[in-house]
Every structure is written in C-alpha cells, then in structure tokens.
Amino acid sequence: MPIFPFRPSASRRSTPAFPQKMLDTVFEHVLLDDVPHPDTPLPEDVLPACEKTEIRDGYNLCWQLLEHGVDRKAFRRLILKIALSGTASKDEQLAFKYARAKFKHMRFACANFTRQHRYPLLLHVVTIIMGNMQDAFKNHQRRATLINGLILWVVLSPVYYWLIAAPIALWKEDSTAGIIAYQKKENARLAKLIRTLDATTGHEFHVMRKIISRRVAFNDTLRTIRPSRGLDQLSEYLATINGMMGDFHDGLIEKKLEGTQDYRRDRFQSPEGIPQRIRAFLERSPH
After folding, report:
1. CA quadruple 143, 145, 150, 151: dihedral positive or negative?
2. Where is the chain membrane-spanning (predicted)?
3. Which of 37, 119, 129, 163 pairs as cysteine with 236 (C-beta 3.0–4.6 A)?
C-alpha cells in the first residue's frame, strides 16, 4: 500500500496554456484588488453568470498563475534568507508579497470555482503561514519570522509541495447554477455579519472582508476571461470596500501584536463608509 494518497503526477493539470499576456493581466488585477476607486459606480449586474467554458478557463487560469508564476526554488531561497536574517529589504518584501498573492488567488479560486467551494486544507494553512511570516518580518518580530519561515521552507520543498498541489489539480469546477447559489449564500452570510458592524470584533470584521476579497478575486478572473466595462466597474467597486477594510484591519493586527486590543473579544464600530457600500451591493444583488 502506498504511503501517500496521491502520486506526485496527480498534482498536475492537463490544460491548454494561456498566453503570458492573460497571466499578466489577471495578476495586474490581483495587485489592484484593494486599490480604492471611490468614484466608480456600482453596476446594474452585480451577480454575473458564467458559462461552463468560462468557469473552466477561470479556474485553470488561476492554476497556471500559481504553477508558472511562482519560481518555488527562488521563493524558498528568499524565505530562508528572511527567516535567518529576520529582516527583508523592500525588494524582498515585494517579491514575497507577489508570490503570496498568487497562492491567495489560487485559494480563492478553489472556493469560487470548484464544486467544493472551500479552501484545500494544506493550501489554506500554508497561505496563513505566509501571512503570519509577512506580519512578523514587517513588525520586526525575529522569533516569529524564523519559525514561520522554516516551516514554509520545508512545506514548499518538492517532497511536500505536491500534497498541497494535488487537490488543486484534482478538484472539479462547479456549474453555473452552483456558482450562483454559492455567491447568494455568501451574500446571505455578509448580510448577517453586517448587522454587527456597529459593534464588531477584529475576527468578525476579517470574516466579512474575506467574503469581499473572494468576490473581487472571482470578478478579476472573470474579467480577464471576458473583458467588459461592467465587470471592471464591479471589481473596482468591490476593491474599494476591500481596500477600506484592509487598511483598517492592518491597524487591528498592530493592536493585536502590541497586546492593546483583543482581536476576538474587544468590540468597536466599523469606519464610516464601509457599511453603506456593502449594503448598496447587497440591495442590488438578486436573492
């Protein structure tokens, strides 16, 4: 009986290669997923449907962005250097951010496009560790940088990486109806959570932001496959919310690390503007 449930070859997908221009375009969208566009209006269609081919192409595009867009050998060398030194130059921080962004976008794609509509466990865990390491070296936490870095260096090695990649390659895309149902379910969660924004916790606020982030990621992938002004507007509108929430959440993380605010217990009022934009999006979404 084999020790591992999958063969290393199972971590590959047999898909047509997208042109580099499309990979560059979707990554440009990813890098702008939290850049505010306060003057961009909310379009009429805020729950765009996808054809079966667009769903397949969208998922495969995200997979190729990760597989061909991250040089794992170079990324592991960078991780080890930062882990051992405890610091990162601006260029190193940017390189780390870019690699992590591609892992995050693939994680979102698994939730957005597959029948499972969730994150593969190991991909989710490794992305969290990347975030913890990034927070650690940005906040000059030498011990946390070292520990998270060494874990990442090991799990991204060829021996272990295929365990992360296998579910990504094997999971199947959902139908148009399944994706719409998932997005409506996410909207319902958002509508429930938004009621707490007058007195929310850091954790609740983060859960809300992740719903917005997933939707931006879905839309950014879709507008790469099917360019349109309406999809551009929807991405920009959602990116504005994502950016506003992200900036505020960075402050919450700092307070958590400083020990001045309990991330899961202490309650606060959300910044003005965020609830109004989310409510406008939900009011226009089909139920």
Report:
1. positive
2. 150-171
3. 37
Which pair of structure tokens corresponds to residue 46? 């805020």
Q: Is 70 helix (H, G, I), strand (E, B) or coil?
A: coil
What digits encode the pLDDT tens for the residues 180-199? 999 999 999 999 988 877 78
Beta bridge partners of 114: 173
Average pLDDT over residues 242-268: 86
Give the residue from 192, 230, 225, 228 showing the smallest Cα distance to 211.
192
Rounded alpha-carbon distances, angstroms, from residue 127 to 5, 42, 195, 261: 22, 31, 29, 24
Supply the pTM of this predicted model: 0.90
- For tokens 């940017």, what's the residue? 94
Residue 173 β-bridge partners: 114
Using alpha carbons, list the distances in angstroms from residue 63 to 30, 68, 75: 14, 8, 17
Which amino acid appears at position 74 of this protein? A
Do 62 and 106 meet the contact criterion of CB atoms below 8 Å apart? Answer: yes
- 114 in helix, strand or coil? strand
The domain limits of the chain are 70-170, 176-284
